[in-house]
Automatic annotation (TrEMBL):
Domain Glycosyltransferase 2-like: 7-190
InterPro entries assigned: Glyco_trans_2-like, Glycosyltransf_2, Nucleotide-diphossugar_trans
Source species of the chain: marine sediment metagenome
Residues passing through the membrane, by range: 283-305, 311-331
This protein's UniProt keywords: Membrane, Transmembrane, Transmembrane helix
Protein's UniProt name: Glycosyltransferase 2-like domain-containing protein
Listed Pfam families: Glycos_transf_2 (PF00535)
Protein backbone atom coordinates (compact mmCIF):
# COMPACT_ATOMS: atom_id res chain seq x y z
CA UNK A 1 0.00 0.00 0.00
CA UNK A 2 3.03 2.29 0.08
CA UNK A 3 2.99 5.01 -2.57
CA UNK A 4 5.42 4.16 -5.38
CA UNK A 5 8.01 6.66 -6.53
CA UNK A 6 6.91 8.42 -9.72
CA UNK A 7 8.57 10.70 -12.25
CA UNK A 8 6.70 13.49 -14.02
CA UNK A 9 8.33 14.47 -17.32
CA UNK A 10 7.59 17.82 -18.97
CA UNK A 11 9.37 18.78 -22.22
CA UNK A 12 9.45 22.52 -22.92
CA UNK A 13 10.81 25.04 -25.37
CA UNK A 14 9.81 28.70 -25.22
CA UNK A 15 6.83 28.13 -22.94
CA UNK A 16 7.04 31.39 -20.96
CA UNK A 17 3.34 32.03 -21.72
CA UNK A 18 2.11 28.95 -19.86
CA UNK A 19 4.86 27.26 -17.79
CA UNK A 20 4.06 29.15 -14.58
CA UNK A 21 0.47 27.92 -14.73
CA UNK A 22 1.69 24.36 -15.34
CA UNK A 23 3.88 24.51 -12.22
CA UNK A 24 0.97 25.87 -10.16
CA UNK A 25 -1.26 22.97 -11.15
CA UNK A 26 1.47 20.33 -10.79
CA UNK A 27 2.21 21.49 -7.27
CA UNK A 28 -1.47 21.22 -6.41
CA UNK A 29 -1.42 17.51 -7.28
CA UNK A 30 -2.02 15.51 -4.11
CA UNK A 31 0.90 13.11 -3.82
CA UNK A 32 3.67 12.70 -1.20
CA UNK A 33 6.44 15.11 -2.10
CA UNK A 34 9.14 12.63 -1.11
CA UNK A 35 7.66 10.12 -3.58
CA UNK A 36 7.98 12.07 -6.80
CA UNK A 37 10.25 14.09 -9.01
CA UNK A 38 9.36 16.61 -11.70
CA UNK A 39 11.81 16.53 -14.61
CA UNK A 40 11.68 19.53 -16.94
CA UNK A 41 13.46 18.80 -20.22
CA UNK A 42 14.23 22.13 -21.88
CA UNK A 43 14.96 21.88 -25.58
CA UNK A 44 16.85 25.15 -25.94
CA UNK A 45 14.46 27.90 -24.87
CA UNK A 46 15.41 31.43 -25.92
CA UNK A 47 12.70 33.29 -23.99
CA UNK A 48 12.23 33.47 -20.20
CA UNK A 49 11.29 29.80 -19.81
CA UNK A 50 14.60 28.76 -18.20
CA UNK A 51 14.51 31.65 -15.75
CA UNK A 52 11.00 30.66 -14.69
CA UNK A 53 12.01 27.00 -14.23
CA UNK A 54 15.05 27.92 -12.13
CA UNK A 55 12.98 30.18 -9.91
CA UNK A 56 10.67 27.24 -9.14
CA UNK A 57 13.70 24.98 -8.57
CA UNK A 58 14.86 27.28 -5.76
CA UNK A 59 11.60 26.58 -3.92
CA UNK A 60 11.28 22.82 -4.55
CA UNK A 61 14.22 20.42 -4.57
CA UNK A 62 12.28 17.68 -6.39
CA UNK A 63 12.14 19.81 -9.56
CA UNK A 64 14.98 18.76 -11.85
CA UNK A 65 16.13 20.44 -15.05
CA UNK A 66 17.62 18.66 -18.05
CA UNK A 67 18.92 21.07 -20.68
CA UNK A 68 19.17 19.89 -24.30
CA UNK A 69 20.53 22.72 -26.51
CA UNK A 70 19.41 22.54 -30.15
CA UNK A 71 16.94 19.79 -29.29
CA UNK A 72 15.40 18.42 -32.53
CA UNK A 73 12.00 17.51 -31.10
CA UNK A 74 9.92 17.16 -27.91
CA UNK A 75 10.33 13.39 -28.27
CA UNK A 76 14.11 13.72 -28.08
CA UNK A 77 13.73 15.78 -24.90
CA UNK A 78 11.47 13.12 -23.34
CA UNK A 79 14.07 10.45 -24.07
CA UNK A 80 16.74 12.52 -22.35
CA UNK A 81 14.45 12.86 -19.34
CA UNK A 82 13.87 9.08 -19.34
CA UNK A 83 17.63 8.57 -18.98
CA UNK A 84 17.57 10.21 -15.55
CA UNK A 85 14.04 9.30 -14.41
CA UNK A 86 13.95 7.16 -11.24
CA UNK A 87 10.22 6.51 -11.05
CA UNK A 88 8.51 3.13 -11.11
CA UNK A 89 5.85 4.93 -13.13
CA UNK A 90 6.59 7.72 -15.62
CA UNK A 91 3.97 10.44 -16.06
CA UNK A 92 4.05 12.71 -19.10
CA UNK A 93 2.47 16.10 -19.60
CA UNK A 94 3.46 19.33 -21.34
CA UNK A 95 4.45 22.86 -20.42
CA UNK A 96 1.03 24.13 -21.46
CA UNK A 97 -0.98 21.63 -19.41
CA UNK A 98 -2.67 21.67 -16.00
CA UNK A 99 -3.27 18.28 -14.29
CA UNK A 100 -6.08 17.81 -11.78
CA UNK A 101 -5.38 17.27 -8.05
CA UNK A 102 -5.94 13.48 -8.16
CA UNK A 103 -4.11 12.99 -11.45
CA UNK A 104 -1.41 10.65 -10.11
CA UNK A 105 -3.62 8.70 -7.69
CA UNK A 106 -6.27 7.94 -10.33
CA UNK A 107 -3.64 6.72 -12.79
CA UNK A 108 -1.92 4.58 -10.16
CA UNK A 109 -5.22 3.03 -9.11
CA UNK A 110 -5.65 1.77 -12.69
CA UNK A 111 -2.09 0.42 -12.78
CA UNK A 112 -2.57 -1.42 -9.47
CA UNK A 113 -5.78 -3.06 -10.69
CA UNK A 114 -3.98 -5.08 -13.37
CA UNK A 115 -0.22 -5.80 -13.59
CA UNK A 116 -0.52 -6.13 -17.39
CA UNK A 117 -1.59 -2.52 -17.81
CA UNK A 118 1.43 -0.77 -19.32
CA UNK A 119 -0.10 2.60 -20.17
CA UNK A 120 -2.84 4.69 -18.58
CA UNK A 121 -4.22 7.84 -20.13
CA UNK A 122 -6.73 10.44 -18.97
CA UNK A 123 -9.05 12.93 -20.58
CA UNK A 124 -7.88 16.29 -21.92
CA UNK A 125 -9.93 19.46 -21.66
CA UNK A 126 -9.30 23.11 -22.56
CA UNK A 127 -7.96 25.71 -20.14
CA UNK A 128 -8.50 29.17 -21.61
CA UNK A 129 -5.57 31.52 -21.03
CA UNK A 130 -7.34 34.40 -22.79
CA UNK A 131 -11.18 34.33 -22.60
CA UNK A 132 -11.38 36.39 -25.81
CA UNK A 133 -8.95 34.29 -27.86
CA UNK A 134 -10.83 32.82 -30.85
CA UNK A 135 -8.28 30.05 -31.47
CA UNK A 136 -8.66 28.79 -27.92
CA UNK A 137 -12.45 29.03 -28.27
CA UNK A 138 -12.25 27.01 -31.50
CA UNK A 139 -10.14 24.28 -29.84
CA UNK A 140 -12.55 24.09 -26.92
CA UNK A 141 -15.64 23.90 -29.13
CA UNK A 142 -14.26 21.14 -31.36
CA UNK A 143 -12.80 19.20 -28.39
CA UNK A 144 -9.25 19.41 -29.71
CA UNK A 145 -7.05 16.57 -28.36
CA UNK A 146 -9.87 15.04 -26.30
CA UNK A 147 -9.69 11.25 -26.02
CA UNK A 148 -13.31 10.14 -25.63
CA UNK A 149 -14.77 11.92 -28.73
CA UNK A 150 -11.97 10.47 -30.87
CA UNK A 151 -13.35 6.97 -30.24
CA UNK A 152 -17.11 7.54 -30.26
CA UNK A 153 -17.36 8.97 -26.72
CA UNK A 154 -16.05 5.86 -24.98
CA UNK A 155 -16.17 5.46 -21.20
CA UNK A 156 -13.52 4.26 -18.76
CA UNK A 157 -11.92 0.94 -19.60
CA UNK A 158 -9.40 -0.97 -21.70
CA UNK A 159 -8.45 0.03 -25.22
CA UNK A 160 -8.60 -2.72 -27.89
CA UNK A 161 -5.27 -4.51 -28.42
CA UNK A 162 -3.29 -4.46 -31.65
CA UNK A 163 -4.61 -7.05 -34.10
CA UNK A 164 -4.35 -6.73 -37.89
CA UNK A 165 -2.02 -3.68 -38.05
CA UNK A 166 -3.90 -2.40 -41.08
CA UNK A 167 -3.43 1.33 -41.83
CA UNK A 168 -6.54 2.50 -39.97
CA UNK A 169 -5.29 0.70 -36.83
CA UNK A 170 -1.94 2.45 -37.04
CA UNK A 171 -2.86 6.03 -37.95
CA UNK A 172 -6.61 6.07 -38.55
CA UNK A 173 -9.81 5.85 -36.52
CA UNK A 174 -8.79 2.47 -35.02
CA UNK A 175 -5.43 3.78 -33.80
CA UNK A 176 -5.86 3.67 -30.01
CA UNK A 177 -3.24 5.72 -28.21
CA UNK A 178 -2.74 8.45 -25.62
CA UNK A 179 -1.12 11.78 -26.41
CA UNK A 180 1.81 12.78 -24.22
CA UNK A 181 -0.12 15.70 -22.74
CA UNK A 182 -1.77 13.20 -20.37
CA UNK A 183 -0.34 9.70 -20.11
CA UNK A 184 1.57 7.50 -17.68
CA UNK A 185 3.74 4.46 -18.43
CA UNK A 186 4.76 1.60 -16.22
CA UNK A 187 8.57 1.75 -16.33
CA UNK A 188 8.73 -2.03 -16.61
CA UNK A 189 6.61 -1.85 -19.78
CA UNK A 190 8.98 0.69 -21.34
CA UNK A 191 11.99 -1.43 -20.42
CA UNK A 192 10.63 -4.79 -21.61
CA UNK A 193 9.58 -3.25 -24.92
CA UNK A 194 12.91 -1.40 -25.14
CA UNK A 195 10.73 1.50 -26.18
CA UNK A 196 11.85 5.04 -26.82
CA UNK A 197 10.17 8.03 -28.42
CA UNK A 198 11.21 8.52 -32.00
CA UNK A 199 12.88 11.76 -33.07
CA UNK A 200 10.34 12.97 -35.63
CA UNK A 201 8.50 16.24 -35.02
CA UNK A 202 5.30 14.48 -33.96
CA UNK A 203 3.60 11.07 -33.93
CA UNK A 204 5.85 9.88 -31.12
CA UNK A 205 2.86 9.25 -28.85
CA UNK A 206 1.26 6.79 -31.29
CA UNK A 207 4.60 5.12 -32.05
CA UNK A 208 5.41 4.71 -28.35
CA UNK A 209 2.02 3.16 -27.59
CA UNK A 210 2.40 0.74 -30.50
CA UNK A 211 5.85 -0.31 -29.29
CA UNK A 212 4.50 -1.09 -25.81
CA UNK A 213 1.28 -2.74 -27.04
CA UNK A 214 3.35 -4.86 -29.40
CA UNK A 215 4.88 -6.56 -26.36
CA UNK A 216 1.47 -7.51 -24.95
CA UNK A 217 0.93 -4.63 -22.54
CA UNK A 218 -2.57 -3.19 -22.13
CA UNK A 219 -3.81 0.39 -22.47
CA UNK A 220 -6.39 1.72 -20.00
CA UNK A 221 -8.48 4.88 -20.27
CA UNK A 222 -9.11 6.65 -16.94
CA UNK A 223 -11.08 9.79 -17.91
CA UNK A 224 -11.18 11.20 -14.37
CA UNK A 225 -7.40 11.69 -14.49
CA UNK A 226 -8.01 15.02 -16.18
CA UNK A 227 -5.54 17.45 -17.66
CA UNK A 228 -6.53 20.89 -18.95
CA UNK A 229 -4.63 22.01 -22.02
CA UNK A 230 -3.69 25.61 -22.82
CA UNK A 231 -3.89 25.59 -26.61
CA UNK A 232 -1.99 27.60 -29.21
CA UNK A 233 -2.64 31.33 -29.13
CA UNK A 234 -2.95 31.89 -32.89
CA UNK A 235 -4.68 30.05 -35.70
CA UNK A 236 -1.40 29.97 -37.63
CA UNK A 237 0.31 28.12 -34.78
CA UNK A 238 -2.60 25.67 -34.61
CA UNK A 239 -2.36 25.05 -38.36
CA UNK A 240 1.34 24.24 -37.99
CA UNK A 241 0.40 21.64 -35.37
CA UNK A 242 -2.10 20.06 -37.77
CA UNK A 243 0.54 19.94 -40.51
CA UNK A 244 2.99 18.10 -38.25
CA UNK A 245 0.22 15.66 -37.25
CA UNK A 246 -0.36 14.90 -40.93
CA UNK A 247 3.37 14.50 -41.58
CA UNK A 248 3.53 11.78 -38.93
CA UNK A 249 1.03 9.50 -40.68
CA UNK A 250 3.26 8.32 -43.56
CA UNK A 251 6.10 7.65 -41.10
CA UNK A 252 3.82 5.61 -38.83
CA UNK A 253 2.42 3.64 -41.76
CA UNK A 254 5.87 2.86 -43.12
CA UNK A 255 7.06 1.61 -39.74
CA UNK A 256 4.05 -0.31 -38.45
CA UNK A 257 1.31 -0.93 -41.07
CA UNK A 258 0.67 -3.85 -43.38
CA UNK A 259 0.65 -3.36 -47.18
CA UNK A 260 -3.00 -2.42 -47.58
CA UNK A 261 -5.19 0.46 -48.75
CA UNK A 262 -8.46 1.00 -46.89
CA UNK A 263 -11.54 3.02 -47.90
CA UNK A 264 -13.73 3.92 -44.92
CA UNK A 265 -17.34 4.99 -45.50
CA UNK A 266 -17.81 7.00 -42.32
CA UNK A 267 -21.06 8.57 -43.50
CA UNK A 268 -22.79 5.20 -43.21
CA UNK A 269 -23.78 3.26 -40.12
CA UNK A 270 -20.94 1.21 -38.57
CA UNK A 271 -18.45 2.82 -41.02
CA UNK A 272 -17.98 -0.10 -43.45
CA UNK A 273 -14.44 -0.55 -44.75
CA UNK A 274 -13.10 -1.84 -48.06
CA UNK A 275 -9.57 -3.16 -47.54
CA UNK A 276 -7.34 -4.29 -50.39
CA UNK A 277 -3.68 -5.27 -50.86
CA UNK A 278 -1.68 -2.30 -52.08
CA UNK A 279 1.94 -1.22 -52.47
CA UNK A 280 0.80 2.12 -51.03
CA UNK A 281 -0.14 1.91 -47.36
CA UNK A 282 -2.93 4.28 -46.46
CA UNK A 283 -6.61 5.01 -46.04
CA UNK A 284 -9.32 7.20 -47.57
CA UNK A 285 -12.25 8.49 -45.51
CA UNK A 286 -15.66 9.38 -46.90
CA UNK A 287 -17.59 10.97 -44.06
CA UNK A 288 -20.14 13.73 -43.68
CA UNK A 289 -17.41 16.38 -43.75
CA UNK A 290 -15.92 15.05 -46.99
CA UNK A 291 -19.26 14.48 -48.76
CA UNK A 292 -20.41 17.96 -47.78
CA UNK A 293 -17.43 19.42 -49.63
CA UNK A 294 -17.64 17.03 -52.59
CA UNK A 295 -21.31 17.80 -53.27
CA UNK A 296 -20.67 21.49 -52.56
CA UNK A 297 -17.92 21.53 -55.19
CA UNK A 298 -20.18 19.76 -57.70
CA UNK A 299 -22.91 22.32 -56.96
CA UNK A 300 -20.52 25.20 -57.69
CA UNK A 301 -19.36 23.55 -60.94
CA UNK A 302 -22.98 23.10 -62.00
CA UNK A 303 -23.83 26.69 -61.08
CA UNK A 304 -20.93 28.09 -63.11
CA UNK A 305 -21.84 25.90 -66.08
CA UNK A 306 -25.47 27.11 -65.95
CA UNK A 307 -24.27 30.68 -66.40
CA UNK A 308 -23.05 29.73 -69.87
CA UNK A 309 -25.70 27.09 -70.64
CA UNK A 310 -28.90 28.13 -68.80
CA UNK A 311 -31.13 26.12 -71.16
CA UNK A 312 -29.98 22.69 -69.88
CA UNK A 313 -32.87 21.56 -67.70
CA UNK A 314 -31.18 18.33 -66.62
CA UNK A 315 -28.15 20.30 -65.44
CA UNK A 316 -30.37 22.66 -63.44
CA UNK A 317 -32.03 19.70 -61.70
CA UNK A 318 -28.69 18.01 -61.06
CA UNK A 319 -27.24 21.24 -59.64
CA UNK A 320 -30.19 21.59 -57.25
CA UNK A 321 -29.70 17.98 -56.14
CA UNK A 322 -26.00 18.67 -55.48
CA UNK A 323 -26.96 21.68 -53.35
CA UNK A 324 -29.48 19.66 -51.33
CA UNK A 325 -26.98 16.83 -50.81
CA UNK A 326 -24.29 19.26 -49.67
CA UNK A 327 -26.73 20.91 -47.26
CA UNK A 328 -27.85 17.49 -45.97
CA UNK A 329 -24.30 16.42 -45.14
CA UNK A 330 -23.59 19.85 -43.64
CA UNK A 331 -26.45 19.26 -41.20
CA UNK A 332 -25.17 15.77 -40.40
CA UNK A 333 -21.64 17.07 -39.85
CA UNK A 334 -22.73 19.90 -37.56
Amino acid sequence: NESPFVSVVVPVRNFERTIDKTFEYLLNVKYPREKWEIIIADGGSTDKTLDIIKSWQKKYSFIKLVEIPDCPSPAFARNKALEVAKGEFIFFTDGDCAPCEDWIDIMLKAFMSDPKIGIVGGEIYTLRVDPDNLTEAYCEHFKFNMVSPRYGFIKEGYFPPLSDRRPTQIAGHRAYFFVTANVAYRKKAIDTARARFWDHATGEDIDMCIQVMGRGWKLYFAPDAKVDHMHRATFGALCRVWVTYGMAHPQLLRKHATDRLEIVFQAFKKSPVISMPSPIRGFIYLGNFHLMHIFGLLFLIGLITLIFKPYLLWLLILTLVMFLMSFYYLLRFS
